[in-house]
Write a structure and sequence with these properties.
Number of strands: 0
Order of helices and strands: HHH
Number of helices: 3
Largest sheet: none
Helix content: over 70%
Number of domains: 1
Structural class: mainly alpha
Distance between the termini: 10 Å
Strand content: under 5%
């Protein structure tokens, strides 16, 4: 399980950072739905860290609300396992 979480967080971080770069260049963005799917698959830890460290999507309430729900989901899941 830990290897899975490490891998999904690496992939999620790369995709989230890529979205930030695309936003800067005014290019076609990665859909928020895709980013939220990555969060619920386990990439929420890296995405949450990157939200504040690279200042991407951290001011968008509708986005970060779902991100914190995914974080809560994973914390509960890890505690139960």
């Amino acid at each position: 399980m830990y290897i899975y979480l490490i891998l999904i967080n690496i992939v999620s971080g790369i995709i989230f950072y890529s979205d930030k770069q695309k936003a800067k260049k005014k290019q076609r963005r990665i859909p928020e739905k895709t980013l939220h799917i990555l969060e619920f698959l386990g990439g929420v830890f890296t995405i949450l860290f990157l939200m504040y460290s690279i200042r991407h999507k951290n001011a968008k309430k509708s986005y970060y609300t779902k991100t914190y729900i995914a974080l809560l989901f994973w914390i509960i899941l890890i505690i139960l396992i």
